[in-house]
Amino acid sequence: MSGATRHGPRQRLGARPRRVFGVMVGGLLLAVLLNAPALEQGAESMPYGRERDFWLAVWKPFAAVSRTFYLDEPRNLLDRALGRGGGDLFELPAAPGGGEEPGREPPATAPAARTPAPGRGTPAAAPTPTPDLRPRLRTPTAADPLRVWIGGDSMSKVLGEAFLRQAAETGVIAATHDPQLSSGLTRPDFFDWPGHFNQLVQSGRYEVFIVMFGANDSQGIKTPDGKIFQPGEEGWTAEYRRRVAGVMDLLGGGNRLVLWVGQPIMRSAEFSERMAALNAIYREEAAKRPWVQFIDLWPLFTTPSGGYDAYLADDDGQVKEMRHPDGVHLVRAGGERAARAIMAVLKAEAKIP
Predict the structure, then answer these.
(1) Is the CB of residue 298 less than 8 Å from the CB of residue 264?
(2) Tens digit of pLDDT for each residue in 276-325?
(3) CB 346 within 8 A of CB 139
(4) All residues at 6 or more sequence positions from 223 whose CB lies less than 8 Å from its CB, including other chains
(5) Which of 92, 152, 204, 242 is most deeply buried (CB count within 10 A of its CB)?
(6) b/e per residue, 90-118, with b = 16+ CB within 10 A?
(7) Using only C-alpha atoms, what is the Rg of the chain?
(8) Mind giving me the DSSP string for 68-89?
(9) What pLDDT digit, counting tens, does each position of 148-173 carry?
């Protein structure tokens, strides 16, 4: 007679459901991790509201884990194989003008220097004047309005709507609004901004570009040689700076003006710190290019002590709700305030009363 313990039917049935349940939970968790970035992007593209906030809170931690351990790569490979997305490399088209610096006019041919007569000495060389490379916008009319493009990530949605209203009031600015929710400069697989900008530039339609990025860019980034860096790492900053500089160069040239709008303060101190670091990149790269002006929104949305508050005193002195309950985006009053700041710069450049 065998000494092995025999389990009864009830015991065997009790172990199997637990095993099956464990396999199901594990499989579901793996499926979520493999697709978490796509689920997060789907949530970000939802309309503002409680449902969007809920799903973002659910998927963001999974997406962060997925990207950290490259679990999203199988999904990315599949998307590329099926022709979905624009690829995960940020490919910048060649700068217009065959490598000539954008915004720079061809240098005038200087007359040949006259050789001094022997014995008369060498005259002091005249200082070379520094060329003014800033675009010079024409003063538009109702019949020939200034053609302006405004867009970027989700932060440009409410801002752009306000800008369009204010532009219409001038009667001499024809603005096009082109926000791409959940997009940015770190994930070209979601939206190919360099390719989109290249098409807009090649069309020759716009004289002014107003762009705003950053709110969705605090995530992993892939360099052209395939390395992946996370925010805060030196490699991330170098690659992001390369992309910002490349977009500025792409949009420049042809006497076009680029207004690069910085991010405002955020409710989260950690997120604010990240946005401040991005603003520093925008400001520094704009300072190198006469055709780009950096517009700093930060002071417009801080309290007198420099902190965050969703309710601020507007230009008319009334306290208004400026920020969305998510602590990131602008609501209508905030968009109007930011648009007024941009419009003031644009009117000064185009000499619009």
Answers:
(1) yes
(2) 999 999 999 999 999 999 999 999 999 999 999 999 999 999 999 999 99
(3) no
(4) 229, 235, 239
(5) 152
(6) bebeeebeeeeebbeeeeeeeeeeeeeee
(7) 27
(8) HTTTTHHHHHHHHHTT-SS-SS
(9) 999 999 999 999 999 999 999 999 99
